Amino acid sequence: MTQRQRIFVHRSRFITDKPFEHITKLHKDRKKPDPLQRDEYATMMLALTGQDKNMWQFAIGAGPRHGEIAALSWDDVDLDAGKVHIQRNLTGQGDFVPPKTKAGDRIITLLAPALDALRAQYTLTGHLPDTEIVQHFREYGKSEVQRKRFVFLPRLGTKNPGNYFSTQSITDRWDASVKKAGIRRRTPYESRHTYACWSLAAGANPSFIASQLGHEDAEMVYRVYSAWIKEFDGEQVELLNERLGFAPNMPLKTK
User: In this protein, which residues make up the domain named Tyr recombinase (predicted)?
Assistant: First the structure.
């Protein structure tokens, strides 16, 4: 019986069981993250200049989604505090919407390279005019006109620097940057994976990484990066020896 036939006989009440009630859902194997190696990142940073360098130094140093990069405006950035408020995403269809999930509306605490990148970018676009956009909200049909000064602009350096990047144009910038650096081509999403993988390898708390990436909790971090994390089990011993190589003089206080 075909799928349509199953649905028809159920709706016609010839059968009472739901058509797919006893069918196990297939799960696709999640692709293993393929982060940049540190020497590849160094090569990329040496090959790039200006906005391209700033964009990927920020992306790899903070882990935002590419739609969040495209939608980032200067009023979301606090350079003095070293924080960025991710509260807007640009879809592939060109709509400004809230982040993917409620947890995606978040404050990112910037690591030094990401903060340095935004400071450098501010000298390029921080003084440029704002752009009118339509911001859509989670409530159905609710939207408002806003004016934003975007951090990254597609035709920077020309008389018309453009209003903002599309997600496809950011993908194109990634491909061009990787090609210019002469490193192995990866999907653009690996900029986000690189942030997560490097943070995990450095011993960062998965819950902290999850909050930075906009996940509800650490479960998604474990699910996405579990296969990659296993490769670093041996390094965990060195990390623990380094941090726990001596016992505290006084026992830890407990409540």
Answer: 31-238
